[in-house]
Design a protein that fits this description.
- The complex is a heterotrimer of chains A (about 270), B (about 325) and C (about 500).
- With about 270 residues, chain A is mainly alpha-helical.
- Chain A has helices spanning about 5-25, 60-95, 100-115, 115-125, 130-160, 160-170, 175-180, 185-210, 220-230, 235-265.
- In chain A, helix 2 (about 60-95) runs parallel beside helix 5 (about 130-160), helix 4 (about 115-125) packs across helix 8 and helix 8 (about 185-210) runs antiparallel to helix 10.
- Chain A starts with 5 loop residues before the first helix and ends with a helix.
- Chain B folds into two domains: about 35-75, no CATH class; about 90-315, MetI-like fold, CATH 1.10.3720.10.
- Chain B has 13 helices and no strands.
- Chain B starts with a helix and ends with a helix.
- Chain C has about 500 residues and is of the alpha/beta class.
- Classes of the chains: A mainly alpha (about 270), B mainly alpha (about 325), C alpha/beta (about 500).
- The interface of A and B includes residues 125 and 251 of A.
Chain lengths: ~270, ~325, ~500
């Protein structure tokens, strides 16, 4: 019944395919991603190794898929953390307004003005690197952007007649916030989540590329890119494979986010 | 005038707040620098002496204000790992990152604005359609991957530059710029894609406003409407966006420097984080924070200068 | 002067449907001709086609539009650019957004001169200031330097008129130019249009949905519906002897019903010395001053005033949405319910009708079975059926949505319903239906209404008593006939004179 924007369809399909591949790779990969093979170092793509092998003879396809798995895990956890806390903060400040709202939003504005990966670097420099510290750092940084979006939606909703109407029905504040208003923020939230995924993937890849994110033995696309630079001319497929997977992940989520945003803009 | 005063006061308060947070994080949570400076073999006496020397025994507010005072006068403390003043480390690297960022910002502005206008005047033409498709992909490319690919193609295959062979701007400014062209492009391309997209959608929205219909009803041509009405209105959000992009570009340079082995702030920041050299990390973060806050301030001011509506709205609500 | 003959407009595309059918209309020099009709009747499309502002790739035109003997339909876009702004000018509904926000008023008034004349900068400035003066703006030199946002809506519409007449066009097309303005400003703009038409021997094609406005201004009127001109003639004839059935419904809308409140009954609401406040950041703004009145069982009390005068604040105080007030509000036990202007925003867009109607009962803890029962009963009352239950508000028509809103209010069994402009967003025929429903509910259930409206015709038709509100105060109240026939305050007199045009 509902007609989807072409971006939503393309992004949805692309993301679904990527996620499917990653989930499959959690249970089965063509090769053991950590198994080295000194006979097949830096071999170009072939039928045996679809994306070739790296400097230790490991199968790049298997490594890339496992690395994408780490990336996706981090993205899911950070977005979940940012979204849940952001919704709570945004709902209360947006609905009630007042001085606390002003102060919190000023803080959120300042934090969101920073390039998020830089702040994450600062946090990780204190916490130390590693997968869960990256999640914590990025998750914390995503709270303000979600809070800001949700707050805007709630502040707008609070002036709408349907909220007045809910008050007339005798609904309490919590019921108004989470039963009446929340479903109306769905499309905006979905597109924010898609954009959040995209930012998380990019930030994690950047941090790992710099060697400050995911640490061995956890596989990581960013670190693979950094390793691949040494063999750039002799084995360009190494860098290209890792990079293209990152691009596809980001492209899928970007398209999805933009498609959803366009749909919600048209409905409003 | 009162507006500017208010803005400047809030600018200072924000800066103080951020500096306090940075101090709290890096000076207190980061642990005892003394143990890190002295390594594994030291006596309690040596540690106590060093602590007193560094002023770590003083009460908290005094330490904050001394630290802040140092910051304002350019004394960012001493690096743990190099044992030299942080400022001397930065004075080397800062101009390099500054040059790279400025270069890519110039590229961004000088390409995206004319491109946006041209595409708006040729809406739905074939170049416009090709661009829209490419644009979406360009926004999804991580700049550092773009940098790696440019190293491969222009550096290793076409030999247009020698990767890793950065020439200092003091030595040969032209050659330095020629080397920085490639990292600057890598940073600028995704930003150009975003700016043009914003510009186009802003133009598109303006075209649908009522005043366009009014201008048509007075006998204006489409072209005249674009140049005398729509463009001025549509460029406002773009200018704000560009001002806010500057910190993003600096952040972008920090990664790209790693790709092209440019000896700027980025490489220093990364090595300092890995070595837990907090004074250096703190100084760089503070510098970027100041840049972010200043750029936000600038964006606000620019907005008011361009758009007459804001002046009155603010005046009325104060 | 202008002659439209056999005009047919067809939207291109897969379906290719005709929106204007065989339209004939002539305008003499200096004549003011109105087109009246509901939204979607084709009146704006017809006007835009005269100005050549329809997209030629999308709309195909047949027939003929002659301006002083010149065939407009065969003009090229370049030829049309020379006609627009010089021979034909337009003003639109939203004066503020119709002006470029970044351009000084003076330069916008000069635009047509720049395009169509060889005047130099100084002469243009002089002409623009002259035009600003002729639309009765005081201090035109000062206005010249201002930006649109610095002026009020009425002033912006005067600027639009100045920009339209600066080239002394033969024809002015005015598309709902007073709809977005307050009642008292409306009258000024209308008399200005009349004066300008006489002064410049300029013909006016005036488009409106508002019969009162048309009747005040136009020499002749054409009634449009679904792309047809169903009737045209001299304004007075149309109003006094409407021939077409549709015209009769339009005119009937502004006639008085005849069941007045018979006797005194118990009050259902009583306000005494209510002062209400809005908090905006640190500022607390007083919105109501010493408001006192009461509503009795089965009574419809009208509340009239311009936007921002405190009408909606009164509604919010009564229903308890705005808690920041002093004075007493006696509700006699039952919480009054509310019906809002735009049901699309007052009904939660993400829920279906059945959920919306059940929600108040759900909150009250009513069991699922009896909730279903109550919803089924209420549906019949407001003229909806079970098939509507699964739909969302956006999937219903405007009239159906307002029925749902009334049902949602009724299901809580209130004695009083506050209706805040309940029919303003609806088309005339639907308006009549909803007003009939409200009257029926009043008779059958003994409901009372506080009926808020800026539409004097509607107030006149359904209210027993009426209050006039201005700047947060009730300046006059009494029975409808009293107020309309013997207004005391000067403001009420102005309103009543407008209403007099309607009666």
């Amino acid at each position: 019944m509902k007609r989807y924007h072409i971006y939503t369809k393309a992004g949805g399909i692309l993301s679904a395919v990527m996620i499917l591949l990653i989930v499959v790779a959690m249970f089965w990969t063509p090769y053991d991603a950590t198994a080295t093979n000194s006979a097949a170092k830096l071999s170009p793509p072939s039928l045996a190794h679809l994306l070739g092998t790296d400097n230790l003879g490991r199968d790049i396809l298997s490594r890339v898929l496992e690395g994408a798995g780490t990336t996706l895990l981090i993205a899911v956890l950070t977005v979940a953390m940012g979204a849940v806390l952001g919704i709570l903060i945004g709902a209360f400040t947006g609905y009630y307004g007042g001085p606390l709202d002003n102060i919190l939003m000023r803080i959120c504005d300042t934090i969101t003005a920073f390039p998020s990966f830089l702040l994450a670097l600062a946090i990780v420099s204190i916490l130390g690197s590693g997968t869960y510290h990256v999640v914590l750092a990025l998750g914390l940084l995503f709270i303000p952007s979600f809070a800001r979006i949700v707050r805007g939606e709630y502040a707008r909703a609070a002036t709408q007649a349907y909220v007045d109407n809910a008050k007339l029905m005798g609904a309490g504040a919590l019921r108004i916030m989470f039963v009446h208003i929340l479903p109306n923020t769905k499309s905006v939230l979905l597109s924010a989540i898609a954009i959040g995924f995209n930012n998380a993937v990019l930030a994690e890849a950047s941090m790992s590329y710099l060697g400050i994110g995911v640490q061995p033995p956890d596989p990581s696309l960013g670190r693979m890119l950094s390793e691949s630079q040494t063999y750039l001319l002799s084995a360009p497929w190494y860098a290209i494979s890792a990079g293209v997977v990152i691009i596809l992940l980001i492209l899928g989520f970007t398209l999805l986010g933009e498609g959803l945003a366009k749909e919600s803009g048209q409905n409003a | 005038m009162r507006y500017f005063l208010k803005k400047i006061i809030s600018l200072i308060i924000t800066l103080l707040l951020v500096s306090f947070l940075a101090f709290l994080t890096f000076q207190l949570i980061s642990g005892d620098p003394v143990t890190q400076m002295l390594g594994t073999e030291y006596t309690e006496e040596m540690a106590a002496h060093l602590r007193a020397q560094l002023g770590l025994d003083d009460p908290f507010p005094i330490r904050y204000f001394r630290w802040l005072g140092g910051f304002i006068t350019g004394d960012f403390g001493t690096s743990y790992s190099y044992n030299v003043p942080v400022s001397s480390l930065l004075s080397d690297k800062l101009p390099v990152t500054g040059l790279l960022s400025a270069f890519s910002f110039v590229l961004l502005v000088s390409i995206s604005i004319p491109l946006g206008i041209w595409l708006a005047a040729h809406e739905d033409s074939i170049p416009d359609k090709i661009f829209t498709a490419l644009n979406q992909i360009a926004m999804s490319i991580p700049p550092f991957f773009l940098g790696i690919m440019m190293t491969l193609v222009f550096g290793l295959m076409l030999h247009l530059f020698v990767p890793g062979n950065y020439i200092s701007y003091q030595e040969n400014f032209g050659a330095s710029l020629a080397y920085l062209l490639f990292p600057a492009i890598a940073i600028a391309i995704p930003k150009i894609a975003m700016t043009v997209k914003l510009f186009k959608s802003s133009l598109h929205a303006e075209y649908r406003r009522d005043y366009v219909r009014t201008a048509l009803s007075r006998g204006s041509t489409r072209r005249r409407i674009l140049y005398s009405h729509v463009l001025r209105n549509a460029i406002i959000p773009v200018v704000t966006f560009l001002a806010l992009t500057i910190p993003e570009i600096v952040a972008g340079s920090i990664i790209i420097e790693q790709v092209f082995t440019v000896p700027g702030l980025g490489r220093l920041l990364v090595s300092s984080i890995l070595n837990r050299d907090y004074p250096v990390v703190c100084a760089i973060v503070m510098l970027i924070a100041a840049l972010v806050i200043l750029m936000n301030f600038l964006a606000d001011i620019l907005y008011r200068i361009i758009d007459p509506r804001i002046r009155i709205d603010q005046e009325a609500s104060k | 002067m202008l002659e439209i003959k056999g005009l047919k407009l067809t939207f291109q595309g897969s379906s290719g449907f005709e929106v204007i059918h065989n339209m004939n209309l002539a305008i003499e020099e200096g004549e003011i001709v109105g087109i009246v009709g509901e939204s979607g009747s084709g009146k704006t499309t017809a006007a835009l086609s005269v100005a050549g502002l329809l997209d030629r790739r999308k709309v195909q035109a047949e027939g003929s539009i002659l301006l002083d003997g010149m065939e407009l339909l065969s003009c090229s876009e370049t030829e049309y650019q020379k006609i627009r702004g010089r021979s034909i000018s337009m003003v639109f509904q939203e004066p503020l957004s119709s002006l470029d926000p970044l351009m000084k008023i003076g330069h916008q008034v000069e635009e047509a001169l720049k395009l169509h004349t060889n005047l130099n900068r100084k002469q243009r400035r002089q002409a623009a200031i002259g035009a600003l003066r002729s639309v009765e703006l005081s201090d035109p030199e000062l206005i010249y330097e201002k930006y649109p946002h610095e002026l009020s809506g009425g002033m912006c519409q005067r600027v639009m008129l100045a920009a339209a007449i600066v080239t002394h066009p033969r024809l002015l097309i005015a598309d709902e130019p007073t709809t977005a303005l307050d009642v008292s400003v409306q009258a000024q703009i209308l008399s200005l249009i009349r004066r300008l038409s006489q002064e410049y021997r300029m013909s006016v094609l005036f488009i409106s949905h508002d019969l009162g406005v048309i009747r005040m201004l136009c020499d002749r009127v054409a009634v449009m519906r679904d792309g047809y001109v169903v009737e045209q003639g001299r304004t007075q004839d149309i109003f006094e002897h409407p021939a077409h059935a549709y015209t009769r419904t339009l005119v009937a809308k502004i006639q008085k019903r005849n069941d007045f409140l018979e006797t005194d009954r118990d009050p259902v609401l009583k306000l005494e010395k209510v002062n209400a406040f809005y908090r905006n950041g640190r500022n607390r703004r007083q919105a109501l001053y010493d408001v006192s009145f009461e509503i009795r069982r089965g009574e419809i009390l009208g509340l009239v005033g311009e936007s921002g005068c405190g009408k909606s604040t009164t509604a919010k105080v009564i229903t308890g949405i705005l808690p920041d007030y002093t004075g007493t509000v006696e509700r006699y036990g039952v919480r009054p319910q509310m019906v809002f202007q735009d049901p699309l925003s007052s009904l939660n867009p993400s829920k279906n009708i059945s959920w919306l109607l059940e929600e108040p009962l759900r909150i009250a803890g009513v069991s699922k079975l009896s909730r279903r029962e109550s919803v089924r009963n209420i549906l019949g009352r407001v003229g909806l059926s079970e098939e509507h239950l699964r739909r969302r508000p956006a999937e219903l028509s405007g009239g159906q949505r307002q029925r749902v809103a009334i049902a949602a209010a009724l299901i809580q069994r209130p004695a009083l319903i506050v209706a805040d402009e309940p029919v303003s967003a609806l088309d005339v025929t639907i308006q009549t239906q909803i007003l009939d429903l409200m009257l029926e509910l009043k008779r059958e259930l003994g409901l009372s209404y506080l009926f808020i409206s800026h539409d004097l015709g509607v107030i006149y038709r359904i209210c027993d008593r009426v209050m006039i509100m201005r700047e947060g105060r009730i300046i006059e109240q009494g029975s409808v006939l009293e107020i309309y026939q013997h207004p005391k305050e000067s403001y009420t007199k102005r309103l009543a004179s407008l209403a007099g045009e309607i009666q």
